[in-house]
Amino acid sequence: MKLSIIFLFGFFFSSSVLADNSINEELKAAISNFLPDVEIDSIQPTPIKGLYQVVIGPDIIYMTQDGAYVIKGEILDINQRKNLTEDVRADGRVKLLNDINKDEYIEFVAKDAQDAIYVFTDIDCAYCRKLHRDVPELNARGISVRYLAYPRAGVDSAVGQEMSRVWCAENRQEALTAAKNRESIEAEACDDPVAKQYALGRKLGVRGTPSIYLQNGRNLPGYLPPDEIAKQLKNSK
Asked: How many independent structural domains does the chain possess?
């Protein structure tokens, strides 16, 4: 009897896997018909019967099982008061943020660090300078600030080159502060991570600076004062 139950369980499980694989291949084929050059990261069923979630880089779309209809938007779980689409985005961001080498971002470490935020920044950005002036207060609240480069005009722009000098400076913290104060930076050329971080920002969906990411992957676009950042961090736990 036990062997029969195990066999039946294994049969249904393998049949389910085969069915899912078949659906995934059908959906991939359907997507390739109208988006031939995209790379699909994952296809997963949603809580809505017959609707599948398709992750393509920073974008998430939904497709019917037959591949005939595409829906772009958010799925909200009313009962749990959760944005299921944003949860998926956040999970993907966590993996990307955790892959950043510690020696590649410029960190202003809080003495008694309890939290950390990642900030995509541009030295030629008024609200980035405003946020930078808040760093001492954020540090005093136990929040470390980890800066990543995102020159909005592009890596090869004058600002992009200046940010490369910041990341190549002997004291990156001082260089970043000076650059935000419109002071020139002198530094020997190095194998800097600016282009890599800019590409990461685009993959994460950064549209402007500053763009703040919490360690759980949640995004806080634009400038926020220390009180609001602390509140968002508290609510994320």
From this structure: 2
Please give the structure tokens belonging to residue 123. Answer: 């030295």
Question: Any catalytic annotation for residue 122?
Answer: yes
Residue 96 lies in a domain: no
The residue behind tokens 């020159």 is 151
Give the pair of three-digit tokens for residue 151. Answer: 């020159």
Q: Give the H or E element holding residue 106.
A: strand 106-108
Is 172 an annotated catalytic residue? no
Q: Which domain holds residue 204?
A: 101-235
pLDDT tens profile 60-84: 989 888 888 888 899 999 998 888 9
Same domain for 179 and 68: no
Say how far apart CA 174 and CA 166 lie, in whole Å.
9
Quick check: helix, strand or coil at residue 82?
strand
**Residue in 195, 107, 118 with CA at minimum distance from that of residue 151:** 195
- Among 125, 129, 165, 192, the one annotated catalytic: 125
Residue 141 appears among annotated catalytic residues: no
Tens digit of each residue's pLDDT (9 = 90 or more) over 209-230: 999 999 999 999 899 999 999 9
